Amino acid sequence: MKMSGLVAFSSSLLLGTALALTGAGVAQAQESAPAVEAVDYVALGDSYSSGVGAGSYDSASGACKRSTRAYPVLWEAANDPASFAFTACSGARTGDVTAGQLGPLSSATDLVSISVGGNDAGFADVMTTCVLQSEATCLNRITTARAYVDSTLPGRLDSVYAAISARAPSAHVVVLGYPRFYKLGGGCLAGLSEKERSAINSAADHLNAATAKRAADHGFTFGDVTPAFTGHEICSGSAWLHSVNWLNIGESYHPTAAGQSGGYLPVLDSKA
Predict the structure, then answer these.
(1) What does the pLDDT read at residue 37?
(2) In the structure, how many helices (H) and strands (E) does the chain have?
(3) By CB neighbour count within 10 A (0-12 exposed, 13-18 middle, 19+ buried), where does 48 fall?
(4) 182 Cβ neighbours under 8 A, 6+ residues apart
(5) Which among 142, 161, 186, 198 could bridge 235 via Cys, Cβ 3.0 to 4.6 Å?
(6) In terms of residue numbers, what domain contains 111?
(7) Are 148 and 121 in contact (CB under 8 A)?
(8) Are residues 214 and 182 in the same domain?
(9) Cβ atoms of 266 and 228 closer than 8 Å
(10) 168 in the same domain as 55
(11) How many domains does the chain have?
(12) Rounded distance, CA 232 to CA 187, Å?
């Protein structure tokens, strides 16, 4: 064989070998790559899940005030689940969830998100009391709320979580908590005292701890949003939470659109 023929033969052999190896590699990668299945997702809960405070409410949701900027809708837009049901509602307590929000759940449900418990513990009344009344009255009301979290709320959460498991036994359930409201030593020059702000933050931590315990006991995943909101509390100068909004009082102490996208959404992403 001439030298030029030998070179051509060698080149062809190398090319064929490379193509064969490449094809085998591609085939192996295709065989080993896990199939990505579309998820059936149901979003339950209270105003922190419905998106109160974020604006852009779906008129069809009425008083539930489900926002197109709420973290469940943002997650749906980014992940394109096979199905998406959004039943979270402003003002919902644990009993409201079990009575009116669980319809979309089924054995096919893969993912459930929920925030609930704050209204049961009297969150709105605590904040109204603290804004309008004395420091002593505020602190007493917080003490009452903490006692409720210790004595009564765990059983209420158990009822909700058990009902979710019964209807959607295969679902991965992510329970979202609540942020601390205030940056202590921050830039607020008026309003609540630092003692009141500290007590409110501590009560939020207390509620989260109780919720996380009940979630874990049911095999659910707890999503702590406190780290995500750190640096974005009221008095931080870059708040992701509304302070008192006298023009729209219902949005007070709720996440803004930035709080939904920058606070809640990443936590759901990391836990889903």
Answers:
(1) 67
(2) 11, 5
(3) buried
(4) 188, 192, 197, 198, 200, 201, 233, 234, 235
(5) 186
(6) 39-271
(7) yes
(8) yes
(9) yes
(10) yes
(11) 2
(12) 12
Say which amino acid occupies 65: K
Half-sphere exposure of 270 (CA within 13 A, CB side): 13
The answer to whether 137 and 125 have CB atoms below 8 angstroms apart is no
| 254 catalytic per annotation | yes
Q: Which of 47, 49, 50, 115 is catalytic?
A: 47
pLDDT, tens digit (0-9, with 9 covering 90-100), for 79-137: 999 999 999 999 999 999 999 999 999 999 999 999 999 999 999 999 999 999 999 99
Tokens for 133?
A: 């009344």
**In terms of C-beta density within 10 A (0-12 exposed, 13-18 middle, 19 or more buried), how is residue 132 classed?**
exposed
221 three-class SS: strand
Query: Is residue 206 among the annotated active site residues?
Result: no
Q: Which two tokens stand for residue 167?
A: 């209807």
Question: pTM for the whole thing?
Answer: 0.86
